[in-house]
From TrEMBL:
This is Heat stress transcription factor A-1-like. It comes from the Eukaryota. Residues 1-90 form the HSF-type DNA-binding domain. It comes from Camelina sativa (False flax). Belongs to the HSF family. The gene is LOC104727908. SUPFAM superfamilies: Winged helix' DNA-binding domain (SSF46785).
């Protein structure tokens, strides 16, 4: 919800705003985005960590011209913040599935199967 709230705020439009199809966001000024928001709003130390978090939640990078980044997700829709709950559930399920596979592999190694 933090990214949704930030994108919804018209005051942040010169730095980050909705994409033209209203299911993505565009970072217009990466340097300013990092300086103002990465550490303070997203608890990240680096942009690469923020990018990894977006991927974890199923966001995809959309190719744009140089100097701007666009990320989209089918459940990240302008005017429909309730869809963000679905996005969170999908990310949790994917994370849980990876954990269970890793846990099973460790158990098999321990049992020497």
């Amino acid at each position: 919800m933090r990214i949704y709230t930030l994108v919804e705020n018209p005051a942040s439009d010169p730095i980050i705003s909705w994409g033209k199809d209203n299911n993505s966001f565009v970072i217009w000024n990466l340097e300013e985005f990092i300086r103002r928001y990465i550490v303070h709003k997203f608890d990240c130390n680096r942009f690469s960590q923020f990018h990894a978090d977006l991927r974890h939640y199923g966001f995809r990078r959309i190719k744009k011209g140089s100097g701007e980044l666009e990320y989209g997700h089918e459940d990240f829709v302008r005017g429909q913040p309730e869809r963000m709950k679905t996005l969170t559930l999908k990310a949790w399920r994917k994370s849980r599935a990876k954990f269970e596979v890793k846990e099973a592999a460790e158990e098999m190694r321990r049992l020497q199967i």
